[in-house]
Amino acid sequence: MKNPYLRIFDANFNRAKEALRVAEDFSRFLLNQKSLSLAFKKCRHDLSQIVLRGPLPYRRLVLSRDSIRDVGRAHAIRDLSKADWKQIMAANLKRAEEALRVLEELSKVLMPKASSRLEALRFRVYELERQSFQKF
Question: Is residue 105 part of a domain?
Answer without folding.
Answer: yes
